[in-house]
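G.,

No rush on this.
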Amino acid sequence: MAIQGLCGEGGSEPFWDDGCVRFSHELSEGEKEATGNRKAKVMDCLKSLGIACAEDNMPNIAVLGSGGGLRAMIALQGTLVELKNQGLLDAVMYLCGVSGSTWCMSFLYQEKDWTENVQALEECLRDTLSNSPCDIKEEFAVATQAAEEELFSLTDDWASFFVYPALKQYDMTKLSEHKDATTNGTNPYPIYAAIEANPWQKVEEGTWFEFTPHESGFPGLGAFVCTEDLGSKFKNGDLKEKRDEKNICYLQGLWGSALGSMEEIINYLIDRLMEIFPNIRKHWYAVNEAGGSLTNNCLLATLRSLSSPGTDCTCAHCQGVHHLLELHVHASAGKDCEGVFRQLKEVLKGNKNSYLKCCEVSETWHLKTLEERITEFAHLIRIFENELGGNCLLATLCSLSSPGNDCTSAHCQGLLLLLLELHIHASAGKNCEGIFTQLKE
């Protein structure tokens, strides 16, 4: 996952919690205290297993959890239960994980003495994943609140619209609040890991980034900040602007590996649309039977064009899709649409009916009411589809924009536009607050 803007540059090595970047390859004071308190329990467990050793040469045993979404979460939980049953769990000094395994870890460390109750926690996790409902209103509420923050990103949406439906709970606690569960010696010391990645550069290796309840940072570079300060502004190694610590739900979205692949995001958005809007699926089948295209590849190419117009296809159809959706975004946010109309007309020059309708709409746009603009926009989409070939994504948007069609409820309009508009804005690094303002209305 991409970890950006978390640490400043320069500075001297301070005490671990004084509000500065700590430059050192030594363990943090919090980790030293936690592992020191854990040693007695580990020694007793090793002794019970017939392993004799002195404290100064005691092996540091770690359990490493792999990635794999819910499967990894459930697998790690089951593994820890069996380690407990076999009398091996107390020999573990560190519990480390990536991606789905971190979801299990963050669930367990809500409990101060989780190793003593790991079987009961497994049953609790099973009940939560199996029986807890998801509230779409809560998804929107959390995403809307996140949009008001300066560091709002696609990770916030992933946490709201993927992690919450997957885990069936919003964990609003903070990682730093798990200190009591790590320093009392009862539990192994947790290390959550991610990779700093630049999505605009094709590199094979990223920089390892660690999160613990005490500190977070780059172990390879020897640069850490207090976890309470993760996301705050630093300059020359000093804390300049304190910001609220991100909650566990956000971190669960960050630790999850899905955001590393834009194609996987797009596939998820397509599947999410299919799941939430059954009428969309029916309409797409109707388009297919009439000779149109109904494939995820078609949608994939279209959605790709939204984030990187022209990279996959430069035909009038794909470019037109991009500009029509961009027009909808601008109009919804109350922005000037003249530039978008100009680009759209340039694309449609070779398509007489679409071009003439676009010119007509653009010339009278400023004179229209909101309802009239919606109607004109829907007419433009229909002409575009008829002339350049029906596209299910635009047909769906048209049906939501036109009164009397398949579904014009605020719920359907809001969720579809959120998925589409957030994809456009987040991919372009734009501020998304305006989109959420429209959804609130």
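When you get to it, here's the other one too:
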Amino acid sequence: MRMKDIECSAWLLRKVLSFSLIALTFTLSRVAGENVTSPSPGTTRSGENFVDLANGVLCGMDTRQKKIVGGKNSVLGEYPFMVSLKMKHSLKHFCGGAIISENYILTAAHCVTNYLAPRLTVAVSELDLSGQSHDQSYEINPNRVIRHKYYDSRTYENDIALIRLRKPLTWSKSVQPICLSNNSEHYVPGRRAVVTGWGRTSETSRYTPSILQNVEVPVVTNDLCRVQLAEYLPIFSTQLCAGYPGGELDACQGDSGGPLVIKEGGRVYLVGIVSVGVGCARPLLPGVYTKISSYIDWITRNMS
């Protein structure tokens, strides 16, 4: 969620459950992987700084058949962990999320409530919201929503939630889980991360693309982020900031709850959840994300 100012911006209204991508340039490059048996859910594999919570596949693998560089749109299988949260009655997209196991979706707490759960549906294998790309997407209803009990709607602290699905996902080339990163090197300032979503393409435009978009943004230090956002928001150690000094590329309305990821060694790692920001792509105002490494214990505990 974003805000224009601390007093009256729609970004701070609870009814606004969205974000978007302002993409002047895009990076779409991944290496295809293979499905193999994963380790036990909720465990960190020896010697590797990530958590794989899924059964039946390795997390974070790219299942595309070809490599594309410099494109604007994502392609099917490039971000197979990406989901769209929709309202059942309208099938209208309002937030993003990430597949972390066959039974669970990770998203932002400000996107969902227990009251909202019966009205939600989760679209997987989704690439084109218009339904014209033959992406074989389908919806699964949630069984339960688990929001962090200390989520603060004023500051967006602990902006994280789990959605338990009514039935397990079936893995395919376009439906795959993502790894949860607890590798400190993935959070180093200057590290390039990718945020994905179907949200608005500018702060002032109501246009939302039907094809899943992605844009690369650099991680910035929390100390710098605190200074830059001091007038608007507190920044906690459990949050992560990313964005360019000149703005230009960012998340905006329509992408809340979606993933911020690091691509490394042919795999993709979840490092953040789109949470809050000031406007969209404004200079010296980076976006704020829920930091995944701070919540791995919470995630695994609430999945057990």
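The domain at 179-293 is CATH 2.40.10.10 (Thrombin, subunit H). The first strand starts at residue 2 and ends at 3.

Enjoy the weekend,
O.
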